[in-house]
Amino acid sequence: MDIDDLVRRGRPDSAGWAQSDVGRRVLDGVVAADPTGNSTGRRVIGRSRASRPVLRWSFLGTGVVGAAAAGVLAVSVISAPPGARTDSPPLASGQPGAVDSAIGGVTPVAARDILLAAATRAEQAPAETGTYWHVKTLDVVGPQRVGTGGDGYWVLGRTVNESWDASNPAADSWTGRREVGVRPSSAADEQAWRAAGSPTEWTIDTDGPSKVVLSTRPGEGTLSRDTDAPRYLEDLGRLSLGQVRQLPDEEGALRAWVSSRIQTDMGFAPGSRDGNRLLFGFLGRMLLDTPAPPKVRAAAFRILADIPGVRSLGTVKDESGRSGQGVEFRDDSTTVRLIVDPSTHRLLGEKTTSTPKGLKAPAKQSSTVVLTAEWSDAAPQAPTLPQE
Fold it and tell me: Cα(222)–Cα(161) distance, rounded to whole angstroms?
């Protein structure tokens, strides 16, 4: 299955593989499910857990399962609007993978050394607890071609997603969302946008029943109570918090479990190129924003360090401008990139790109920048805009 098929399956009008029976299989009896939480009468915007953006949880969906505006940006790079040019978009400056030579990116540290150092720090981290597992991300999808003819340019969609997953299964969990507004994808796109009069809205045709309006203006933040219990690692069985806490913390056992899911559900043998790409991607999602115990995180980093073909990018910047050490796995058409904070064992972000043959730049991109991933006692609130 190629990336195009995966993205199509992850469109907003289809739950795709991640919501299929295969994606929901139990972990072969390894761990037991947790009960769901009970809801209260607090007045909120009604929304079920199933509608929470899957960007946090689904690597196979490449970050495009979610609300309409974000989804259209990802889908429309596959099926461009009538009249849109099909030349490839330029790489956006400052996105994950842009080596910043001014701060040491010329001579990168070996990927294995970066990942093993992160494993050591993760193993030494104390176990944390709190009322909520609180995750706040800036999710970027696109690019989307806007404008007309030769005067067109590319824009990126940006959304803040925030979640408060209750540690007590009887308590409420919450989801927040806020559109940040689209922006030009690169300096050249910004110049073309200004030359076009700096428009603030674009109406995009889709293959769905309605058109979508993209805007540079931020939206209002929303806060929703989840009606279902939190679930994690969408592609590996939709684990409960209790299941996450019981994941194998020994490197060989964890690798065997993830590889078995890849082989059983996706058909790729352990050690194959596709198997290694999915192993890299799934473990990256686990480390990105899942409340896995310190020893499990350490084991995941060590597995990443031993995957053939993982390379270092040196010092890179994420979408918010923070610097970290970049590592990536690349095959003929797909690149999965992780950014590691060198001072901690945490990931700053993840980016997946797909480059169809014959194009020099990625045509499909999705990025997640982790702004917060921690246990917290703070009360849930509608997302604020990220500092820029």
Answer: 10
pTM: 0.75
For 318, phi then psi, to 5°, come to -90, -175
356-382 per-residue burial string, b: 16 or more CB within 10 A, e: under 16: eeeeeebbbbbbbbbbebeeeeeebeb
Cα angle at 196 between 195 and 200, to 5 degrees?
A: 120
Identify the three-state secondary structure at position 109: coil
Task: Tell me which DSSP letter residue 272 carries.
Answer: S
Residues recorded for the chain: 388
Asked whether the beta carbons of 49 and 231 are under 8 A apart, the reply is: yes
Q: Return all residues near 217 (Cβ < 8 A) that are at least 6 apart.
A: 181, 200
The residues facing 214 across adjacent strands are 202
| Type of residue numbered 268 | F
Q: How many CA atoms, within 13 angstroms, populate the side-chain half-sphere of residue 114?
A: 23
By C-alpha distance, which of 67, 77, 74, 78 is closest to 12? 67
Which amino acid, residue 302? R
Q: Check if the beta carbon of residue 264 is closer than 8 Å to that of residue 57.
A: no
Q: What is the pLDDT of residue 92?
A: 30
String of DSSP letters for 204-230: E--SSSS-EEEESS----EEEEESS--
Three-state DSSP class for residue 288 = helix
Distances, alpha carbon 359 to alpha carbons 33, 99, 330, 336, 363, in Å: 45, 21, 16, 18, 8
Whether 68 contacts 212, CB under 8 Å: yes
The answer to whether 238 and 229 have CB atoms below 8 angstroms apart is no
pLDDT in tens, 250-263: 999 999 999 999 99
Distances (CA, A) of 83 to 35, 86, 151, 255, 360: 51, 9, 12, 47, 21
Q: What is the C-alpha separation between 135 and 153, in angstroms, rounded?
A: 32
3-state DSSP assignment of residue 277: helix
Q: For residue range 264-292, list pLDDT tens digits in order.
A: 999 999 999 999 999 999 999 999 999 99
Contact between residue 17 and residue 9 where contact means Cβ atoms under 8 Å apart: yes
